[in-house]
Every structure is written in structure tokens, then in C-alpha cells.
């Protein structure tokens, strides 16, 4: 994030309300400390979880400043999951969502991360949280069929599969599987999909996974990036609707779900829910989360 954008992010974050000075102090402390210390720093997080963060890792530094970078969706995960559940993270990056699901809550997990360097950092975060027995990391991409694809490798949390005609000097070839093949004997209750516009092939390879009634919610990034591949997000919305899902936003402070018409226009992520009463009960009965002086 640019500095101005970071200030706006901190100022508008729900956990900064009434605690703006604390958030700004965390920001300034990180900016200074990350310049003085080479390598990764261990950041203590939710419920005893932690992660390794380096200068420039925008997918993690928002958690340092404000507690939960993507407050609505991360708050939903923390309130919805239980330690008997299975969480699947497609496009895990260095593991923010997997750490919350499996270290902070105690669920089991499968985390897909195609970029070798990022996968190495993901595994480091899993080991830091002693998750070797709870999480299966998979160094593969996810798509419509098995095979291989070229991916960018030096764009931090926005690495992506190359589109037709796209040229990237540092492109790396990655093996690809489908969710149906990888999860053939598994029943996730929550899936997060963050694949920088490649959502359509991921869903094409997940028809059995989506039809399983054990799956109650999907957090999916829909920010227009699919246009680079010629994909229509309207098709994704129709697909999910046909599978019995509806779109919502979640307010972790009030523990309220708010129905949407279509995707979430105010955030890159859209929350898809099926079996609404089950989900509402989970959210209402979850233990409180304590983070940076706030309880929700």
C-alpha cells in the first residue's frame, strides 16, 4: 500500500474506531522496525496464533496495523468455524486465513499455494504455529483440469496465472489440480478462494465440492480481475445461486449478516452462504474474539 492508502485503510478500519492512536503507533513502529531489522519478524496474533512478516508483505502488514486486514471476512471465519471443521484455502499466499482457521480456531485445513517461494513462507508459518498435523499444504494451482500453467512469481499477494498473450520474464510453471480431485475424500464446511481472476476455472473443477451439502460458506474474491482472462463474474454469481448460495456481508461487531443483491461492491471479497439458519446459529454462539483491546 502507498502511505496515503495505508492511512485511509487504518482510519476506516472498524477496529481502529476509538483506538486510532494505537493503530497509528503500530503503523509507525512497524515502518521504523522493518527498516532496522532484516528478515522476518514474529507477530503475535489471535488466540495465541502468530505469523512471520517481512517488510513489503501487504497481505500481512494490514494485520499488524489493525488486527484483521480483511475484517468482515476474517471475522466471519473466526465466528463461524469450530475445531471439528475442515477449512480449505485456495490461493493461500503466506497463510493468513489458514492461520486464523487452524491455529486461532483449531480447525483442520488444506491450503493451496502455487508459487514456490510463497509456498515456502506458507509452510514456515504453519510450522511456527505447530500445524503440521492439522494442515495439508499443497504446492499446486487449482483449475478446471489437471495439468500445468505459467504463473507470475514476484507480485506478492497478486501473483496470478498468466493470461493468453501475457508475457512475464519471471514466470514459473506450476502443476495444477482440481478441487474435486484434491478433496475427493474430504468435506470442507468453508472454502476461501483468492486466485486473482482465475475463479471460473476453479469452480469448473469443483462441481462435486460445491454440491456437497457439508459446504456452508465460500469467501471468494470477485474484484474484476477475471476480465484479464475474458471471464464473466455474472456467470459465477449465477453458478453459486444455482448451487443454493446467496450473497452476504458480515458485521463481526454486531454479528449480523446482511443480504446482498449480487457481489459485494464495497470489498474485493464476496461471502456466499448456504443453509442460513445453521450459519446464523454458528455466528451467534461463537466465543468472543479479543484483539487489540477490542472484543467481538
Write a structural description:
This protein is an alpha/beta fold. Helix content is 35%, strand content 21%. The protein has helices spanning 3-12, 20-36, 58-66, 71-80, 96-105, 116-128, 179-182, 199-204, 207-211, 233-242, 276-285; strands at 41-44, 50-53, 86-90, 108-112, 135-138, 141-142, 147-151, 172-177, 190-193, 217-221, 246-251, 256-259, 269-273, 290-291, 294-295. The strands form 4 sheets. It has an 8-stranded mixed β-sheet with strand order 5-4-3-9-10-13-11-12. The chain has a 3-stranded mixed β-sheet with strand order 6-8-7. Strands 1-2 form a two-stranded antiparallel sheet. A hairpin with a 4-residue loop joins strand 11 and strand 12 (256-259). Helix 2 packs across helix 3 (58-66). The two termini are 27 Å apart.
Amino acid at each position: 500500500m502507498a502511505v496515503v492508502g495505508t492511512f485511509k485503510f487504518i482510519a476506516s478500519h472498524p477496529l481502529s474506531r476509538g483506538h486510532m492512536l494505537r493503530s497509528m503507533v503500530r503503523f509507525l513502529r512497524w515502518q521504523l522496525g522493518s527498516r532496522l531489522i532484516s528478515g522476518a519478524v514474529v507477530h503475535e496474533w489471535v488466540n495465541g496464533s502468530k505469523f512471520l512478516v517481512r517488510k513489503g508483505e501487504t497481505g500481512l502488514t494490514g494485520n499488524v496495523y489493525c488486527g484483521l486486514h480483511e475484517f468482515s471476512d476474517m471475522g466471519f471465519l473466526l465466528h463461524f468455524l469450530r475445531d471439528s471443521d475442515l477449512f480449505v484455502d485456495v490461493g493461500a499466499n503466506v497463510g493468513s486465513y489458514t492461520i486464523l482457521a487452524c491455529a486461532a480456531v483449531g480447525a483442520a485445513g488444506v491450503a493451496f499455494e502455487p508459487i514456490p517461494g510463497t509456498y515456502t513462507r506458507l509452510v514456515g508459518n504453519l510450522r511456527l504455529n505447530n500445524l503440521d498435523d492439522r494442515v495439508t499444504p499443497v504446492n499446486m494451482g487449482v483449475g478446471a483440469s489437471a495439468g500445468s500453467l505459467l504463473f507470475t512469481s514476484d507480485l506478492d499477494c497478486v501473483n496470478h496465472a498468466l493470461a493468453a498473450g501475457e508475457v512475464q520474464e519471471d514466470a514459473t510453471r506450476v502443476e495444477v489440480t482440481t478441487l474435486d480431485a484434491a478433496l475427493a475424500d474430504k468435506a470442507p464446511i468453508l472454502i476461501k478462494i483468492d486466485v486473482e481472476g482465475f475463479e471460473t476455472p476453479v469452480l469448473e473443477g469443483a462441481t462435486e465440492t460445491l454440491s456437497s451439502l457439508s459446504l456452508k460458506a465460500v469467501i471468494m474474491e470477485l474484484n474484476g480481475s477475471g476480465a484479464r482472462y475474458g471471464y464473466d463474474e455474472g456467470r459465477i454469481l449465477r453458478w453459486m445461486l444455482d448451487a443454493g448460495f446467496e450473497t452476504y456481508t458480515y458485521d463481526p461487531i454486531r454479528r449480523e449478516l446482511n443480504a446482498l443483491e449480487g457481489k459485494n461492491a464495497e470489498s474485493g471479497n464476496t461471502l456466499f452462504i448456504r443453509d442460513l439458519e445453521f450459519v446464523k446459529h454458528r455466528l451467534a454462539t461463537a466465543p468472543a474474539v479479543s484483539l487489540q483491546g477490542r472484543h467481538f
